[in-house]
Amino acid sequence: MSADRTPPPPPARPDADALGLRADCGSCFGLCCVALPFAASADFALDKEAGRPCPNLQTDFRCGIHADLRDRGFAGCTVFDCFGAGQKVSQQTFGGTDWRQAPDTARRMFDTFPVMRQLHELLWYLAEALALPPARPVHAALRAALEETDRLTRGSAEELAGLDVAAHRGEVNALLLRTSELVRAKVPGRKKERRGADLMGARLRGASLRGANLRGAYLIAADLTGADLRQADLIGADLRGADLSGADLTGALFLTQAQLNAARGDAASTLPPALTRPAHW
Cα dihedral sign for 33, 35, 38, 43? Predict the structure, then answer.
């Protein structure tokens, strides 16, 4: 009898909840409402500097206008996703002591939050990559990168502040890029290379973009109605106001909930199973 040449199954995707990659606002000290700056625009109704609490932040760290954010001019808040970094900094890095109770920790806490968010975003991408069978050749490296990134998130505030997060992102991105190449190579036909392309307002209704490289592409207000985006690499693509009505995003690579929340779509849009249909679609 010949030996069984069936390849072993890929490692199970690390659970996003186990890794703490889903935001739990009830366990956070409103860090996104304080630490980050925003400017008056179509996304925000007013200017706010980093480190100053949003006037809508209540004493219990909840948003006073959460149910009406879009109507009140704060659409930008509805598309932000910290990937669980807020509760990690609040409950683990600072041990559950909030910046109001201990004002001397405020600056360090606010400086730590953006670093933690970047690390948690990388964990999300790495977990996704580990679930992709075509990426088997780099699964070991992906697993090592995930474990190292998770270790970094457990460092002290001082260690996180001193982290060269850009360098770490660069190392992880090389693995994610290789993952993308391996997955998209399995897609039949010639794939479009539109990495970083300016496609703002582009008319792409019904476009065949299966397996396309759209990493970092500017798709603001693009018409992607009915487009085929299966296995397209969308990491970092700007989908603000893009119309994804009826689009097929099955297997889209490195698509996040924040990107979907920033776009428009409908009940006919087909989404990856790890993501949910935004309430405003």
Answer: negative
- Number of Cβ within a 10 Å radius of residue 251: 18
Q: Is 125 helix (H, G, I), strand (E, B) or coil?
A: helix
Task: Report how far residue 107's alpha carbon sits from residue 259's, in angstroms, rounded to the nearest whole number.
Answer: 29
Q: Which residues contact 168 (CB under 8 A, 6 or more apart)?
A: 119, 122, 149, 152
For 107-125, b where at least 16 C-beta lie within 10 A, e where not — what string? ebbbebbbbbbbbbbbbbb
pLDDT 10s digit of each residue in the chain, 281 long? 334 444 444 444 567 777 889 899 999 999 999 999 999 998 899 999 999 999 999 999 999 999 899 999 998 998 899 999 999 999 999 999 999 999 999 999 999 999 999 999 999 999 999 999 999 999 999 999 999 999 999 999 999 999 999 999 999 999 999 999 999 999 999 999 999 999 999 999 999 999 999 999 999 999 999 999 999 999 999 999 999 999 999 999 999 999 999 999 999 999 998 899 998 89
User: Amino acid identity, residue 48?
Assistant: K
Does residue 153 contact residue 119 with C-beta atoms inside 8 Å?
yes
Which residue has tokens 């109507």?
71
Helices (H), 85-186: 85-87, 106-130, 139-153, 157-161, 165-184
Q: Which of 83, 88, 92, 114 is nearest to 21 (CA)?
A: 83
